Amino acid sequence: MINHEPSRLAALMQLDLLDTPASESFDRITRMASQIFDLPIAAVSLTDTDRQWFKSRVGVEHREVPRVGAPCAQVAETCDILVIEDFETDDVYRDSVLGRAGIRFYAGAPLVTRDGFGLGAMCVLGTSPRTVKGSELAALRDLAAMVMSQIELQHAFGRIDPISALPNRTQFLEDLADLARDEGTGRRRIVSLLDLMAVDQLNHTQRVMGPAAIDAIIRVAARNLRILIGPQRKAYHVGASQFACLAPDGVDETDYLDMVRAKTEQFRKLGGEDVLGTTVIGVAPFVLGEVAPSDVLRIAQGAAQDARATGLPFHSHSATSDKAFRRSFALLRDFEVALAASSDLRLVYQPRIDLASGQCLGAEALLRWTHPTLGPIGPSEFIPLIERMSLATPTTAWVIETAVAQIASWREAGLDLTVSVNISSANLHDSGFADSVKAVLRRHGVPPTVIELEVTETAIMNDAELALTQLNQLAEAGIRLAIDDFGTGYSSLSYLQRLPIHVVKIDRSFIARIDTDPRQLSLITMMVSMAKHLGHRVVAEGVETPAVLDRLRSTGCDEVQGYLFSHPLPPQDFVAWTKVGRRDEAPDRRLA
User: Fold this and answer.
1) Which range marks the domain in which residue 445 is found?
2) This protein's superkingdom (predicted)?
């Protein structure tokens, strides 16, 4: 048998077993050993440099005993079974720590790796002398083999990352659960999560340098992290480029943050000097037993994301931020359900007024959502969520279908108006979008000229050439197009000239102060003049006071829209509103 002590210790350290929390998978075997031998004491004992540390124990108060004079050390060194039928008659162990503590019987079977290294022993102990049957020794060997199988299972199958050689996310979550069970609930602990690079940085590095380069970075980072946190703390590989570790027990959060701040530069270079990414750290204080392990990891990852979003090297978990994020996630999930059922979604319509005649020429269709338990959810909260996710495309499809059906209904009733609908960047990246809009119009028997699609400058510039292709197809079909929130994006005049748009809508942020700020009025006048010289009709959004309306008349603006005339209205109220007359001449009659 191989019995070289440095190699044996190295094999033990590589398994990352020492000083880990108790585990039910090991405790189950230890209880079985105690029951088979009908003895009060059983343990899975690992032989460290100067101690016997118990990964699992029954009837043992202490987590470790000195290695000197410990029978389990002999078992580990010889990789052979050891039976001491009576300590008082054994010259070697009579005066050992166990002998002086009243132990009279010991039997231990070795825990041996596939490479022949003895890690420790599966042992049973008693306070009375006894003999051992051959069947009992066979059972003890089987139990030791079961322990080794569990060790190998945890280490090799789904518990150790093959690149970093660190325990993975599964092991991290299990260790947190074991820690709560072993130490009890109510104790405060801190987890820190290190994210080497953002997802786009990771993808860019892999695309340019290949997956082998990422693997090399991970290996370097894992090695440096182990050195940085020291041998007494355990590091985990919990994500593609994410590592986690527990702060030392009992450390104050403020002190720990000061330590993280002091080592920021070392953390930044964790993956090496050539890493094309920015390392950030998320710090997550939590209470054992009160926060699920999966939630501990989630809030640590969230804190790291907050650090990246704010440009800071590290960020501590914020309950307020986490609550907002969880609300956003819940809303996104519930909106998907609402979209499928359509019962909680509706369109409202805000009138657009011709500034010269005062007549209502059309309306903008706006999506509204009434959550079944939370009530009305503001569009400023849920629209950005769905635009960032895959729900943007089906949401636009629902809005267009509903708006066109409403247009058809109004036309049958003799109300001939243009209705505008907002579309997103995702729609312009869908090569079949123009055809789908034309299909909806044909299905409802509505001419293309009565619908207007509004798109922001930012959505166009995300992929200007592809957007231009889609917009040209829509324009060629006779569908009106509008630039929404004009002035807030970053499109150039050259692109504005190339776009087949009919309408420019000036954002409300430019309109609000034109009655009190001459410079703002001059800017609006210039924007209106430029758009009209390019052949576009101009609509001013967010008109809320007669004074603003009066200033807009001097700019040459074509249409206006805002609360001065009406809030967005349900379809039946909108029809009633259109019958009232010139809203700009009777602001006292507007709907609130």
Assistant:
1) 344-582
2) Bacteria
CATH number of the domain bearing residue 505: 3.20.20.450
Half-sphere exposure of 1 (CA within 13 A, CB side): 18
Tens of pLDDT, residue by residue over 421-449, are: 999 888 888 889 999 999 999 999 999 99
pLDDT in tens, 369-418: 999 999 999 999 999 888 877 889 999 999 999 999 999 999 999 999 99
Instruction: List, edge to edge, every strand of the sheet that includes 41-47.
Output: 64-66, 51-58, 41-47, 118-126, 105-112, 82-84
Residue 156 in this model has a pLDDT that exceeds 70:
no
DSSP string covering 62-112: -SEEESTT-HHHHHHHHTS-EEES-GGG-TTTTTSHHHHTT--EEEEEEEE
pLDDT of residue 488: 65
Of 65, 149, 140, give the one whose Cα is nearest residue 110. 140
Count of structural domains, the chain? 3
Identify whether 533 is part of a domain. Answer: yes
Distance CA 53, CA 56 (A): 9
- Residues 143 and 191 reside in one and the same domain: no
> Does position 591 have pLDDT exceeding 60, yes or no?
no
How many distinct helices (H) and strands (E) make up the chain? 23, 20
Question: Looking at residue 516, what DSSP letter applies?
Answer: T
Per the domain annotation, does 591 fall within a domain?
Answer: no
> Is pTM beyond 0.85 here?
no
Residue 590 has pLDDT above 50, yes or no: no
Q: Which residue has the tokens 């299972």?
A: 153
3-state secondary structure of 27: helix
Instruction: Report d(CA 299, CA 319) in Å as an integer.
Output: 9
